[in-house]
Design brief:
The chain is of the alpha+beta class and 268 residues long. The protein is built from 5 helices and 10 strands, in the order βαααβββββααββββ. α2 packs antiparallel against α5.
Length: 268
């Protein structure tokens, strides 16, 4: 029998202006949505907490997930996560049974891991004062971008788990806590913003491979390669392969991230 978990979607101040306008009420409505969209990595993190409970903490050490976003998740949506014995999962809105996102999870090495490119490690570079706009014509396909360095303090990790994820699992709190899988999933977003201006944007798919346990209180480097860029139905997409390495230069995770970086506006 499938395992189930009920969730209630939330967002702090959906009516406030956001750096990604798609996560604000007015900004999302400009693009034809009924309200602010909950970030894909955030919503995935709610489901990932259930994966940890079901598959064990070993999944955070050496496990994987592939997730595709099909329909928006809005603040105050009531959701149900359905996890099958074969690792397939589906996250639906309770009220209408619409599938918002779905995919597969498993322990060990993902069957697609060899398809994710590994960047040549570069020293981290500071973000310059002026960075270019990301366009489909000038998308850096095949290129490595600036490596981003980020420190995840114990206090910041706890605030992330508590406030953004409303997390209850003990493994994500304390000085020896594991990094939350949602934090891993969103690093390619910040990495791309380290080299380009873009947005509003929508997260559409992720392939995430945990390679070893990431611990809080460390400095991490996020390096990556632009894999592809293309247009589909008026939206401009980008696909990036990224790797997160810890202070000991161990690969903690590899993430292939697909997003719409230029959202088509509805016709008047």
């Amino acid at each position: 029998m499938p395992n189930r978990r009920h969730l209630h979607a939330f967002m702090k101040n959906p009516d406030a202006e956001k750096s990604n306008a798609i996560h604000s009420t007015s900004g999302a409505r400009d693009y034809g949505f009924q309200g602010a969209l909950v970030g894909g990595a955030t919503a995935y993190g709610w489901a990932a907490s259930f994966f940890v409970e079901t598959l064990g903490n070993q999944w955070l050490d050496f496990g994987w997930a592939q997730v595709r976003f099909r329909q928006p998740v809005y603040p105050n949506d009531d959701l149900v996560v359905i996890l099958g014995d074969d690792g397939s999962f589906d996250v639906r809105r309770d009220i209408d049974e619409v599938s918002c996102f779905f995919g597969r999870v498993g322990r060990g090495e993902a069957p697609w891991l060899g398809d994710v490119g590994i960047p040549n490690r570069r020293p981290p570079e500071s973000m310059p004062n002026c960075i270019p706009d990301l366009t489909l014509r000038d998308a850096p396909v095949g290129q490595e971008l600036r490596t981003r360095e980020v420190h995840l303090s114990v206090a910041d990790a706890e605030a992330y788990a508590r406030d953004k994820q409303q997390e209850s699992l003990d493994c994500f709190f304390g000085s020896d806590a594991s990094i939350h899988p949602a934090w891993i999933a969103e690093q390619p977003i910040h990495w791309l913003h380290h080299s380009y201006n873009y947005g509003p944007s929508i997260h559409t798919e992720s392939r995430i491979q945990h390679l070893c346990r990431g611990q809080v209180g460390q400095t991490y480097c996020v390096a990556g390669i632009c894999r592809d860029a293309y247009e589909r139905k008026g939206h401009h997409y980008i696909v990036n392969d990224t790797e997160i390495r810890d202070a000991a230069d161990r690969a903690v995770a590899r993430v292939q991230h697909t997003a719409i970086f230029r959202v088509r506006k509805p016709q008047a």
